[in-house]
C-alpha cells in the first residue's frame, strides 16, 4: 500500500471555481494519473482501490469528482462572482 500514498492526495486537490478551467483541470489530472500509472506501475491492489474510490465519488456526485461536473449539483456561490469568473 506504499504506492497508494501518491494517489490519495488527488482527491484533495480542489476543482477550480471558474467553470472555464474545469476542462483544463480534468485534462491535467487525467494526464497526471496516466503518467503516474505508466511510470510508477503501482501494485494491482492499490490501483483497484484508487479506481474504486474514484468511481464511487464520481458516480455518487457527492465529492469532488475532477473528471466532470455533475449536472445535479449546483455551482458554488463564488462561481457567480464576476471577480472570480471574469467578464
TrEMBL record:
It comes from the Eukaryota. Pfam families: BC10. InterPro entries: BCALP. The gene is BLCAP. Belongs to the BLCAP family. It is found in: Membrane. This is Apoptosis inducing factor BLCAP. The chain crosses the membrane at residues 20-38, 45-69. GO terms for cellular component: membrane. It comes from Neophocaena asiaeorientalis asiaeorientalis. Keywords: Membrane, Transmembrane, Transmembrane helix. Acts as a tumor suppressor; induces growth arrest at G(1)/S checkpoint and apoptosis via RB1-dependent and p53/TP53- and NF-kappa-B-independent mechanisms. Modulates expression of genes involved in the regulation of proliferation, cell cycle and apoptosis. Interacts with RB1 (phosphorylated and unphosphorylated). Interacts with STAT3; the interaction is promoted by cell stimulation with IL6 and phosphorylation of STAT3.
Amino acid at each position: 500500500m506504499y504506492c497508494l500514498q501518491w494517489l490519495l492526495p488527488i482527491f484533495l486537490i480542489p476543482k477550480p471555481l471558474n467553470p472555464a478551467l474545469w476542462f483544463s483541470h480534468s485534462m491535467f489530472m487525467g494526464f497526471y494519473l496516466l503518467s503516474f500509472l505508466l511510470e510508477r506501475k503501482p501494485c494491482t491492489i492499490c490501483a483497484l482501490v484508487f479506481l474504486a474510490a474514484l468511481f464511487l465519488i464520481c458516480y455518487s456526485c457527492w465529492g469532488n469528482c475532477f473528471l466532470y461536473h455533475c449536472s445535479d449539483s449546483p455551482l458554488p456561490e463564488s462561481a457567480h462572482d464576476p471577480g472570480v469568473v471574469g467578464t
